[in-house]
Each structure stands twice: as structure tokens, then as C-alpha cells.
Request: fold
Amino acid sequence: MQPSHSKFVNFLKALLQGERLYLADVGATGGPETRWQQWESLCFFYTFDPDPRSQLGSCASKNYPLGLWSGKDKKTLYLAEHPPASSLFKPNQEVLNSFAASKALQQQSSSWIELDSLDHVLDGQSLDFIKIDAEGAELEILKGAQQSL
Reply:
């Protein structure tokens, strides 16, 4: 750990006064990003990913293997060859074929999933930070997170 990093951690601990930062990682394949894992002792992570192949990581304080939306709903999850590319929106294979990684983006299968809003799932818990990587569903997720944010 670099000295400047230690100073910042101590500053943050003093600032938080024993409290923790509450973070949501939506589209959390692999768990919270490495840059956040160094703050694990100061944070409480909520991780969300509806893809059953996702590894949500050990850094998460609470894992939710479900999809988020603006409210309760049921939609098709299109499972891509590469799990982080799975989406609630049907892939346009003609467009995707123009990319070098098109094989990884191809639809492998699909399944119906239940969706809920972040506000309902967290039931009043407010967040300090949210990261969303949801393949085009970001706006709908934010609509369902107004109280949490």
C-alpha cells in the first residue's frame, strides 16, 4: 500500500466516523471492480446481475441474482456467449457481426426473468454510489432508484 493511499484511507475513515459507504453495482459480473475492492472494509456492496452464469465476487456484502427495472416486470433475458454482454434487449446480430468480438456477443440462449426496482429491493436503504452496466437498461433502472439515490 502506497503512503498516499494509507493517508487517504485514514482520512476517509475519519470522515465516515465508523459508518460505511453504501454502493450498488448493477451488472456486477465478476463482482465490484478491482478499484473498489481496496475499500472493502469501508464499504457495503449490493451487487446485482440476473445472468445465472455471473460470478458476483467475494467482495460483495449482499448479492442479488436478479434484474433491475423501473418496477416489477417480467422480461426475456438474452444470454450472450460472453456473460457481461447479456441483455434485456434482443441483440441485432447483423450489426454485431461488424465487430471483431461478434462471436462473444452472439445470443446463446434466453430465459424469462422477474425484474424489480432498486427502491423496492433495498426497501428504503439509501446509496452513496451506484455503478450501472446494464446493456441499455440504465435509464429504466435509474427510474426505479429515485428513493435509493
